[in-house]
Request: fold
Amino acid sequence: MYLPRQFDHSDDAPRVNALLRAHPFASLISVDDAGLPFVTHLPLHLRDAASDNATRVLLGHVARGNPHWRYLQARPQAVVTFLGPHAYMSPKVYPDLVRVPTWNYLAVHCEVQATLVDDPAAKDALLKHLIGDHEPPYAEQWRGLDDTYAQRMLSAIVAFELRVTALQCKLKLNQHRPESHAAMRAAYAAGSDDEQALGRWMDQLGLNPEEPND
Reply:
C-alpha cells in the first residue's frame, strides 16, 4: 500500500500485534484460476509467539464449498489485510482555512504463505483458538456436541495456517500536522466509537498535546 514515512509503523511489533488482535476480521486475497483477485472476509487468530518479533502465524478456515482453499493449495502466496478504526477528519481541526478534508485510519497488510490444515484433530485445535478469541464459554458447548455432528462440522471446513513473510503497518493519524492535534483529539473524544478509538491511538503515539501551563 501507499505508505508515507510519517505513517509507517511496520517495525513497531507490539502495536502491530495489538492491532491484529483487536481487529481480527480480515480480508484474505489471492488469485483464482482465471488470474483475478479472489477475496474472502473472515476472522483470523494471531498465534502466540515467543516474542513480539517472532514470525507471525495467522490461523483461519473457510467453508469447504468456498473455492478459496483450492486457490491457496495451488498458489500458496496470498495477501491478508486488516482494517482498524477509521474516521473522517474535518479541515476544521486546522487553525487556518486553506485545508481539505481527509480520512484517518489504521491498517495492516501482510504477505503470507498458506499451508492447508485438513486433519480433524488439527482443525479442532485451530477452532479452539478462534473460540477463545470470541466466545470462550462456547468451548464447553463445542466439546459437548455429539461426536458424529462435530465430525460433520469439521469435515465441512478447510483450515489453514498463514505464515507472515512481509508486513506493512500504516497508522494514519495526521502525525505530520501537529497544529491539528489538539482540535482533532477533542473532536474524536466526542465522536463515534471509531473516532474515540482513534483518539486513544493518538494518545498511545504521543500525539495528545500537553496541557497548557497556568
The two ends are 44 Å apart (CA to CA).
